[in-house]
Amino acid sequence: MNKRLKLTSIKSSDDENSSDQCVWNFEDTKRELCEYAKSCGLKLMVEEKGLEELVSEIKIMNKRGARKVFLAFNLMIGLSHMGMVRNRRKNALEFLKVAEDLIKNCGSKGMITFGDGDVFEKLKNSLNFKSFFEGNLVHYKALLESIESQFSEKFSKARIACEVLFVAPCISSCDWLQTWEEMKSDGDFQAEIRLESGSLSKNVLMEVKEVLRGCESSYQARIEGGNENELVLEWKGTQLLRFSIWKN
C-alpha cells in the first residue's frame, strides 16, 4: 500500500463536558472506515483529538522540518442527523479560523469544505428576529416535507421516528434566538475565510443530480458563488443544504 491518509475527528470542549450520549460510536465508525479503506488499497489512520492538540501536533512537525503535507478540513453543521450541538456557531468559527491558519502557515497546500444545513447564513440579513424566525419555520417545514416524500404509508412509523429524533430537537425558538444574537455579534460567517474560493466541477453537479434522479420535480441542485464554489440543494425552492469549498 503506497497511499496513506490520516483522518482526524475533532472533539470540542463541549463534547468533553457534556453528559449527553453521543449519537455515534467513534470506535465502530473507525473500524468500518479502516476496513473500507483497506479494500481500496489505502492505508488509513483514524484518530480523535481536540483542536488545540491537533494544532500543536502540526506545528511541532512543521518546526522539525518535516515534509509539509496537504491539509484538508471538513466542517458540517446544522445537519439534522448530527443532533443538537451547543455553541455550534462559535465552535464553527473557531474551527474555520484555525484551519485557515494551519493551511497558510503549516501545509504545502490545503482546502476547507463546509456543509451548512442551517439557514442562518441565508437569513443573516434578516431585518429582525421575526423574519429570521419565519425563515427557520419555512426551512424546517421543507425538510419535514422532503422526509415525508421518501417514506410510503407502510413506513409511517419509521418516518415519525426520524422526525422526532432528528428534526424536532432542531425546532426551538430559544435556540434560534441564541443563534440570532450570535449572528449580530459575529458578523458575516464565511467572510472570515481569506482563502481563494475553489471551483466545483460540473461532474460534482452531475453526480448529485444522478442521486436525485426521479425526484427532479421536488429537489433541485445547482452551483453558485462568485467562483462557482457553492453547491445548493433545495426542496421545492427552499434551501436545505449549502456546500462550499475554499483552497490555496
From TrEMBL:
Primary residence: nucleus
Any single GO BP term: response to symbiotic fungus
UniProt entry keywords in alphabetical sequence: Membrane, Nucleus, Transcription, Transcription regulation, Transmembrane, Transmembrane helix
Transmembrane stretches, start-end: 69-85
Subcellular location: Nucleus
Matches recorded under InterPro entries: TF_GRAS
GO cellular component: nucleus
Transcription as UniProt keyword: yes
Domain of life: Eukaryota
Pfam families cross-referenced by the UniProt entry: GRAS
Listed name of the protein: Nodulation-signaling pathway 2 protein
Organism: Trifolium medium
